[in-house]
Here is the input.
Amino acid sequence: MDMTIAEKILARASGRKQVTPGEIVEAAIDVAMTHDIEGPMVVKGFRKLGAKKVWDPSKIVIVFDHQVPANSIDAAMNHIMLREFASEQKIANFYDVFEGICHVVLPEKGFALPGRLTVGTDSHTTTYGAFGCFATGIGSTDMVAVFVTGKLWFRVPESARMTIEGKLPKRVGAKDLILKIIGDVGADGETYRSVEFAGTGMRYISMEGRMTMCNMGVEMGAKATIVPPDDLTEKYLRGRAKGAYKPVYADDDATYAEEHTYYVKNLEPQVACPHRVDDVRPVREVEGVEIDQVFLGSCTNARLEDLIEAARVLKGRRVSKGVRMLVVPASREIYLEALRRGILSIFAKAGALIESPGCAACLGGHVGVLGPGEVCISASNRNFRGRQGSPEAKIYLASPATVAASALKGKITDPRDV
Amino acid sequence: MMARAWVFGDDVDTDQIIAGRYLVKLDPLELAKHVMETADPKFASEVRKGDVIIAGRNFGCGSSRERAPLALKAAGVSAVVAESFARIFYRNAINLALPVLTSAGVHKGFKTGDRVRVDVRSGKVHNLSTGKVFKAEPLPDFLSEIIRVGGLLRYMKRR
Here is the structure.
């Protein structure tokens, strides 16, 4: 029987010829990622179980990104615990506070590879699907099981396919497209499913853009989001890939529970309104809303392409008086390249604050915390109540171009107008 | 003491269950002090051992933070019954032996303060204040087994 990409990867990883949706399989994990928030819980569980050794240190990646550098004694203690664990277990793929956000670091270091089965203790692990792998978020106890046995049970998901046709217009990006899709299907619209983004339109969407789309797959409930690999994938992976890989493609008669087609050439800039990721409207409908803070950061939209897009809008201009703009490049590699190209100086001259790589304001526990009544427009992935600080703050989600345009004007602004 | 129902709506996300700023804490009782804080600031101080959360669709959406079900459990919550769950929360809850039951129509069948009895094995969710009984979807055998033995770590130890 014909299979989807998700089915093929899970069949291979569980040593079967064939799997069908609904079936429960035990699959061997190719890459397991944890970070400084869930990692300490994994270590605690590992000790509680009385385990001595991880199954394969070369398949584990640890990244510090949520509380970097440590901003409290608790955070510092968590870091110490995880550093010691990495050293004790001889985990060489350990990236301390300076490297960047896990979902950007793993692709950069060549761990996100076509056909692989990857798990991470973070819901945005779906990001790696941009490279044609099956990648999904799990909790810390599941990760203990992976660390000890190298295996995990999965319910084989139904698949859905989103066919993208056409080329996005100027100042409209992958973020606008994924927001539009989430607005259409809803916050639980794809729950438990693996969603494939296919169609000729994907050819025009860069690896960065594909990562943005797959990153936010979890905001519609998806278990995984997958883009079939092509020459852009190959190009990105050249010189990076950790080991050999084999791209996996869906069979012609694979079964999809649902199919949607998006014609994107007339897509407008989109914004998700507080406090729901699926309350998505064209920027035109909410323009003029006054803002206090602008956040250009996170695993969704702080890659080089995103910084370039925002810098184009801000070059030679200044952030509106009274507005705080935070720019947090997603990784050291991106930070260095943005520095080399003069992009960071564009932001600094515009009056923005530039922070070292990390999750920063996205989860409201580190820098750029919002106070009651404040309004933020953010290039990140979640606008849940209280996400970036006070439950009385409001968060709008938008593309790098839209947040930059809004920073300029001090209010939500369509980037095509500046 | 009789268990009481706490009713919440659709899409209760993990930031509402335990906010990001508390995630540096590892102690479950410390987390329990702030559980559901964003959704209902009174919850943490008023919830009693055995109480049950009744919710709408997509309970636990958002982050993979296992501290969400951990904090609920540490606060004394004995089960969550919802119209549907987000998948990572669902797995995490089972791994911690916090029963999570899916039951169509349950959300409208309760109001906060109703007395409730949940029988995890039979899947019966009884509103003792109104007399109505809701049927939850049965859990697959091995998930019930994980809950029965006290969570995934204990389940692994036995194997």
Summary: Residues 87-95 of chain B form the longest helix (9 residues).
